[in-house]
Amino acid sequence: MENQKRVKEFAEEFGSENVVVLLGAAEGEAAGLAAETVTAGDPTYAGPLTGVQLGLRVYHACEPQVKEEFDSSVYDEQIGMMEMVLDVDDIVSEMTTIRDQYCKY
């Protein structure tokens, strides 16, 4: 709930078009739920983003377009081991679906 509140405050302060959310959830479903929350509103109807459609750009740290933004040695050190056990294709599919449906920017 606190993270939803902070994301909402950042979007209000800086403008939704200037905010990008970077996720690191270990499963596609969890990443998708978080992505849907910051784009279409909280689907659980429990947090500050209930009914708030921010439409933010949202990515997962393991997506190719994000991965290429990092220094490869830093990425390998910080994320590489985890990436080997994640279902990256599932995560990418989930994130792409959410962005295609709900992102405004």
Characterize the structure shown.
It contains five helices and two strands. By secondary structure, the protein is mostly helical. Strand 1, helix 2 and strand 2 form a beta-alpha-beta unit. The protein is globular, with a radius of gyration of 14 Å. It starts with a helix and ends with a helix.
Ordered list of secondary-structure elements with their pairings:
Blueprint (H helix, E strand, L loop, with lengths): L1 H13 L5 E4 L4 H12 L17 E4 L3 H4 L4 H14 L2 H15 L3
Walk across the major sheet and give the strand order.
1-2
Helix content: 55-70%
**What is the strand tally?**
2
Report low-confidence residues grouped into runs of 5 or more: none
User: Which band does the percent of strand residues land in?
Assistant: 5-15%
Span of the ends, CA to CA: 24 Å
Return the structural class.
mainly alpha
> How many alpha or pi helices?
5
**How is the biggest beta sheet arranged?**
2 strands, parallel
Backbone shape:
globular
Q: What are the secondary-structure elements, in order, as H or E?
A: HEHEHHH
